[in-house]
Amino acid sequence: MNNQKQQKPTLTGQRFKTRKRDEKERFDPTQFQESIVQGLNQTGSDLEAVAKFLDASGAKLDYRRYAETLFDILVAGGMLAPGGSISDDLTRTEFCLFTAQEDLETMQAYAQVFNKLIRRYKYLEKGFEEEIKKLLLFLKGFTESERNKLAMLTGILLANGNISAAVIGSLFNENVVKEGECLPAHHYLYLDLSNESCLFSFFPNVWLRLPQMNMELFPANKRSCEHFSKYFTDAGLKELSDFARNQEAIGSRKELQKELQEMMAPLFVHSPHFF
Question: Distance of alpha carbon 159 from its chain centroid, rounded?
């Protein structure tokens, strides 16, 4: 009887395929940009075709992973570097928000493109708001026309409830205010809210702080009621200037009443029948 343990047969040269989901996909926004830019260049300025292209591409491209790149391209034509510049080394498209005509009708059409895209891919909603916040911080890096278009788009989106009022917090960033770049953007934003007939009904809790908020938009050496009133009146927003003045007057009266009550309080304590 052979007590020697028999050796089990082995297979040599066999390779096991790894599942794709187990492989870590390399982050490659450049390749993503090329795909989007190519499609936009083919659709051209036909925004209806652009919307259809974006709708279909979401099934093939990873919008969730490259949301920031996607919105950079749709707004500025290519991926934005910190500060708002676009690298000349990367492929870019001339069919984007910043190269479109600077008028309300065109900006409303672009707002519809973004609205359709986010309705179709709901997970892009948060990323889109973050994109608007970022773009408003980059105002200094954009041309005057680009700033105006961005402000008009933001005003339309706010008026239609497509984005939350939190995005305008970027306009109060210290560096943006210091350069004075936020004023034209704020002006156009309010104009669009006014055109949509919801200037004073929009986020009413914010309007309660309107005088203080808008004063903070000006550089420190220009924060006065006179400067504020003149700027927005000249910009065609006299109703905003008047509203802010009225709110400030109401605030002053309330402050005066509070001071009088504090001054009179001891009299009521020591002489309850004073009156």
Answer: 13
